[in-house]
Design a protein that fits this description.
With 297 residues, the protein is mostly helical. It is 72% helix and 3% strand. A two-stranded antiparallel sheet has the order 1-2. The protein is globular and about 70 Å long.
């Protein structure tokens, strides 16, 4: 017979305990979401002070806009590069840290510290290191190779530099989870694989990755959200959407339409589209990953 005690005495008390959380969710999540959807159906002027009903007009305008279609395309491409790049590099570094026998905690701290940097600080720091004219990395790159770094004026270079910076910033978050998941794998599996002569990197692919599939699925979802929504400060401080809209991703275009061009209705429609796109992507990822995940029990 269970001896567990309830943390509350009545349904009313439970409701009162949940009330602060519910109030925060309504005030900062559900109400803004409903207001955003309502505004997406209006054409607005003067920061929303004047509103004219347009129905689905904002959505039609966006979906038929060449500028928005281009922004959508580069955003999806950027997210794919960030998600796969972050997971691949994190998995490799996390596995190397897990494999070493000494000073693994030192290597772990060295690997995760970029995640502790505020995005604004990271953007300013890397802007200085990678500056086309003044950056120390640029100096040695152009001194030792025939390459020229001019990402202030070259769109593909700006896209690539921003992808590298965004991946670097997120590595620490992924490495923490990957190393923790690897440490939870039973030692007997590693010993059996070694007895069978499985090589180090084949062991990673054949043994460890299937065992940590739930963690990898979680990281795919979190990295997708990060790539679509959380890269705004780095884009704003490093490229401001340029050059030639090469890094004018959806989240940055949304911000400019809302607060630079005072078109809250159009920006709200972009928010709704972005939310739907990311939701569909996460659903596909979870459905796809469920066929490969091996959960314990």
């Amino acid at each position: 017979m269970s001896t567990a005690t309830k943390p509350y005495d009545s349904t009313l008390q439970a409701a009162l305990l949940l009330l602060p959380t519910a109030a925060v969710l309504v005030a900062f999540l559900y109400y803004p979401a409903l207001e955003t959807f309502r505004l997406s159906l209006y054409e607005t002027l003067f920061l929303g002070q004047r509103q004219t009903w347009t129905g689905l007009g904002n959505f039609v305008s966006l979906l038929t806009s060449g500028v928005y279609q281009y922004s959508f395309f580069i955003t999806v491409a950027f997210a794919a590069v960030v998600v796969f790049g972050t997971l691949g590099v994190s998995l490799l570094i996390g596995y190397l840290i897990f494999s070493v026998d000494v000073r693994s905690s030192v290597y772990l701290v060295a690997a995760i510290w970029p995640y502790a940097l505020p995005p604004a600080v990271a953007a300013i720091l890397l802007n200085f290191i990678l500056h086309p004219n003044l950056g120390i990395f640029t100096h040695y790159l152009e001194l030792l190779t025939p390459l020229t770094l001019d990402w202030f004026n070259d769109g593909p270079q700006a896209f690539a530099i921003l992808a590298v910076v965004v991946i670097w910033k997120q590595l620490g978050y992924n490495i923490i989870f990957i190393v923790a998941a690897l440490n939870n794998i039973p030692e007997i599996l590693t010993e059996n694989a070694r007895i069978d002569g499985v090589g180090r990197f084949r062991m990673l692919y054949k043994v460890y990755v299937p065992m940590i599939a739930p963690t990898m699925t979680f990281l795919v979802v979190m990295n997708t959200i990060y790539a679509f929504f959380s890269t705004f400060p780095l884009v704003d401080l490093m490229t401001s959407g340029g050059p030639s809209d090469a890094t004018n991703f959806l989240i940055f275009k949304l911000y400019r339409d809302a607060f630079q061009f005072n078109s809250l209705g159009l920006a709200s429609a972009q928010s709704v589209i972005l939310f739907v796109v990311v939701s569909i992507l996460m659903y596909i990822q979870l459905r796809f990953a469920s066929g490969y995940g091996r959960y314990g029990g």
